[in-house]
Sequence to fold (313 residues):
Amino acid sequence: MSPLQAVLLCLGLCLEQVIQAQNCPLPKPSLQAHPSSLVPLENPVTIRCQGPPGVDLYRLEKLKSGKYNDQAVLHIPAMKKSFAGCYRCFYQNGTCWSLSSDKLELVATGVYDKPSLSAQPSPVVSPGGDVTLQCRSIYSFDQFALYKMGDTGPNKGPERWYRADFPIITVTAAHSGTYQCYSFSSRDPYLWSAPSDPLELVVRGNSVTPSQLPRGTPTSVTEPSRNITIFPEGSSSPTGLMHPYYTKGNLVRICLGAVILILLAGLLAEDWHSRKKPLLHRVRAVHRPLPTLPQTQKVCQDRGRPDGHDHGP
Fold:
């Protein structure tokens, strides 16, 4: 292969890598727990990572533990405290890794006795009125979570020890429903109590109905500013990998550096070949036999007459 062909081949490979790098990272997968991410002790649960069709490899990781499995599904036949934690997943196609999925907080419930839930001043409220849902525990927990059946996530209120208040300002018909609360400690954020007994919140009257609410109106029972995130963030790359993918800039620099090195090697090879041919020619010329001297030159070496006879003095 000539130096020019080697350079063209390297350029083609580099362009292929650059095009591939432009498609990295791949879109993030989804990660869900079935039937729920709140799992009573000894109950089964399945964690599933879902990416596009034809994925080469899945990686399911439990944060803070350093443990991961190269699989898309994790089936837990009986929930234990050790399974509780924060999970995420990735997938790989070729040399490209995807972005991380949204984190899944798998919580073990029933670890502690249930708290109590009450409505102040009453669980029956008129539209436009105010009500406060109070979650109380006999233990000195500093974290509480309130769930409304049908909502996708909890509202957390670390207001004070032993209890938390969840005020609902300007009640509407959308706030009516069944509520439960949990208590836990910030030291073990994935080990929760059993749920409280259900509390039914009734909104009297029809001044505002759910169909009259603007589309996208939230049904959370606290203002957004009162919500907190208590779960720690994890690292940004899959465990066990130095890095899931090269950045585009670094890959381009590597390719350009390889091309320059090959070009220099080609130039040196061409220069070496061009110098080698004249050198060999000169060496062969030096070792050729000398031509035979003419006979006249040999006769000139005699110190006598040209006819070869010497004469006496």
